[in-house]
Each structure stands twice: as structure tokens, then as C-alpha cells.
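Example record used in the benchmark description.
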Amino acid sequence: MKHINKIGVMLTAGFMLAAASCTDYSDYNSEPSFAQAEASQTLWENIKSDQQLTKFTALAEKSRFSTALSSPRFYTVWAPVDAAFSDADYNALMASDSTTIVNHFMHQHITEYNYPVSPALDSTTIVSLNAKHHPFTQQGFDDFDYVATNLPAVNGVLHKINGVSEFHKNLYESFDDLTDTLFKQYIQKYDDYYLDVAASVIGPLVEGKQTYLDSVLKKRNNVIDRIMSASLDNEDSTYCLVIPNDQAWADAYAKVNPCYNYIPKMDYMDLTKKNTVASSTKANTAKAEQAAETTGAELQDSVARRNIVQHLVFSHAYASNAPLFGEGSLSASDTVISTSQAYLTNANSVIDHTIATAEMSNGMTRLVDSLTFKPWETYNPIISVRKPESTLKVVKTTTHNVAIDSLKGERDTLFSPVKPYPVLLEKLLPHDKQFFTYEAVDSADIEGKDGSPEFCFALRGVRSTTYRIYVVTVPAQVENPQAAVKPYYLRFYLSYTDAANKQQYMILPETKRTDLEITTDEGTTSAKTIYVGNPGRVNVLDLGEVNFPACYYGTDAYPSLMMMHTKAFRTTANREKYDQQLRVAGVYLVPKEYNDLWANSSN
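Model output (C-alpha cells):
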């Protein structure tokens, strides 16, 4: 793919251009020094009286850009002579509306400030008023030769060229030309027009309000800017935009939508208040309940669509994305990075499912018949909770950071129970981090006391899907290899909200409680509800699968996981025999699809 050399010359009003051919700031809004003796007319007067520029004149008059060329604002104009136009192109331009003529033609051939042609001119890039990039040399503009150069005016300088600079749309502008697809409909629903003050020509104040002799309206789009995190109208950037056709959109929507099943009202256990609270206002009438249901359905639809488009733009600034631009090739294990900062594997499938490509002024598009990025890397990620929301029977907890290098000799033994869980092992000992981190009860709160510390975790961001829940416990040996080896005896309780907005309580794995009080049952020997793990090791406690019928993502509600001892510590014997302190490296909710994949691959 051919890439335009983008120097990054900005046209922000009030700031000088950083191009090699640009003169000093004092040139702005004034005559060029080399032409002052001859300059007595405006650019518009010079253009209108030039018999080689009758077509340029007609286009300026129709689009009312003649007013701008008569204003005190200083411009450099590269005007195509009449012979440069084909009849078909000229007639098509004249048949266009004034906005199109201004943006596609007038602004394509004009920039602010003084750009003379001189023997000292180095080849550079000019940014025209419509933010397009053009090569500017001693020989020509946009690869067109000069007919005349440095024609002076009191408000600028005029060069005549023997060709018409072709307007190429950028990725954002290209949406207008897309087939009317579900993707296009969603994006353009959020188009917003605004006045581009910098590109407009200021007029007089009328009754205290600013008027403009030439008003330039531009579009922006909050979905592209905020959700896709891209500037698809920025000519200084290069992007690959993946465009799903209707089949790809429908298939993706069918997968994403069930993960965001919002119910009209959701009560949940607030761990800080230790009681059940409402996350939304209760609907007191049938009409209000119906409205709430509509709102829930609309929210589900909106979030589902948002998740489809969030990872469809890729910047050329990342070397790993180069194959998406036709530079090199991708394997199934290669990773690309979206503008929303997601690291996505299986990127080769984007190329495999591409059915058409198109080049734009700031990148390219790939029309695909399937969106194949993995759910756990996009709309249904692993949820991790590293710290408890609250603690019972203790004052506070402390975050411990242990240098990973100090654990090198202990990894094979300390982390041996974690090895069957490669996804969690990577999260616990990441390659790009220096510390192994966990949360623990302060020793001063429990030493010599008979209390049984309890942790309460808020599982924020849970989707309406099935997760495998894991809790990673940490032994004293991580910090002190000489510490006494003591086993944990633990039980876990989960509270969540069902689709009917009723609180459900269970002992994990999947033993439902009929009472609403969450209390310990010390001394039980039930193998189904007590987790011991491998004493003296970092353990992954598998709490089994849980299906959450309602989506919590984006709300203040959350399911609650309570972790507690099943042994009493009233006697010195028990305190010496069992691990009284709680140390946790995190709670992990792994989507079932992802869990099944790596569990089956490890067998």
C-alpha cells in the first residue's frame, strides 16, 4: 500500500506553520515582502480579471467563496487555469452544492499564510484549508506544473497551475459513500454538525453576536471519537478501518447482545453497608414499569452495538498492525492493537474474511463478511478483582508487592498448583511487571486473637453470561520461605440478582441457601463446600461455574463473593495448626467459552 508522507503541518488559527518553506509569523495577514511594490488588489480582484481563470472565478462565485478571497485573511492560492479542467469535471463541480464546491475544490487549492516559489524552496508538504496534504516544490503543486507563480495581492499570493488537484476523502468522509449497511446506519446516527470557526471568515458583530462572511460547517461523531478512540478525519494519521457487512454485523450482534441483558430494576448487596439496596428507582406504575423495560432493552441494544464497533480501527503507528495495511503477513498467534488499546489475536482472520478494500487519503478500509476477534478479548473479558471491597472482623488489609525476581527459585514449587491454569499464571506473573501482588490481613489484627477474618469481594462488571470462578490464595512462604506451613479451610458464599430482581445466595459450588443470613458453619467436613488447596503453595481454588442471568456492566450494582474461614481460632492449638491470615492474589471470573478452550487444550 502506498502511504502519503505526512509531515504534520497544522493549520490551527493563531499558530505559525512548522514547514520549511513557511515565512515568519509576521507574514500572516500581510503582504509578502517581495511583492509589496506591485500588490494593489485583492486575490479576488486578481482572479476575477484573469482570463485564464474564468472557470475558477465561476466556481468561487457560485460557492460564495469570493467573499473570503476579498477578506483581510492572508491566503496562498494555487488556481487551476481553464485548460486544466475537462468539460465533464467542470460541469460536475458546477452542478454541486456550494458546500461541496468549497470543501472539494476551493479549500483543496488554498492554504493560509505565505508560500512563495523561490530558488530557496525545499520540497515540502502543504496542508490545504480542507486539511488535505499536497507536495509543494519549485516545479509544481500536487505534481502539476506552474503556469505562473508569485502573483501578488494585498491579502495573499497567487500561483496558477495546469491541473486540478483531485479531492480524496478521508476515512470519516468515506462513510457518505458506503452502501447503506447496519454499520453505516449506526455510525452516522451520531453525526453532529458544528461551525468550524478557524476555517470560517469572521464578519461584523450584529447585536452583540458574531457573524461570519463565510461559514464552514463540519461534522464530528462521538462514537468514532470516544468509543472507537480514533480521529478518522485526521489527515496526519493513517488507519485501517474494518467494516462489517450486514451478515457480519448480524452474526456479531447475535453473540454480543445476550451478554448485556439489563433488567429494569436491580437490587444488590452493598458490601459497605452490608444490606440490600436498589441500583435504580422502583417503577410504581404499570406505565413506569413498561417504560423501564423499554429503557432496559434500549440500553442492551446500545451497549451491544457499542461493543461491536469498539475494536474496528487500527493505527499504522503500531508496527504490529502493518499487515492489516498490506505490509507483511499475519499468523494466528500474531497480535494487533486497536485504537481502543485492545490486544487482539486471530488477526489473520481479518485478512481471510476481507471481501473488498479501498484506499483513502488517510488509510484504507477492509470490508469483511465476519468479525472473528475472540469474545474474551473484546466484549466478554476475564473479570479480575484484586482487592476485597470490605473486610469483616479485621480493621484493614495491606497490599503486598513481592519482587518477581526474588521468587525465581521458588516458582516451580510455590506456583506449581497454578500451572494447570495458564491464563491465570500469566496474570499472576506477567512478563511486563516486576512484582507479584496480593492482598493480606494485617498481622497485628489477628495474632494471638480468636477472630476469623473474612473478605468480601465486589464482582463489578459482570455480564449476563456463565463464568468459571477462581480464587487465588497465597501462603506465608511467598514472603517468608521459613514460615510454618499451615492449611486454609475456607468457604465461599455468592449473592447475585436473578432476572426477576430477587437476591440469590449460594455456597460455592452451587449449593443454594434458603436463608438470607450469610454465616459461617464452623467445623463442617463437607468436601463440596470447603477448600483447602495445597498448603504452602499459591493455590487456584476452583469455585465452579455460575450463570448470571442479569448484566451488571456499566451499573453501580455487583454480585458479592464472601470468603471466610470454617475453622474457629479460639484456641492456641487451632491458631498454630491452621492459617488464620487471609492472603489473596485475586478473584477471577473466566468466561466459560474461554475456560473450556484452554482447559481442553491442556488435557
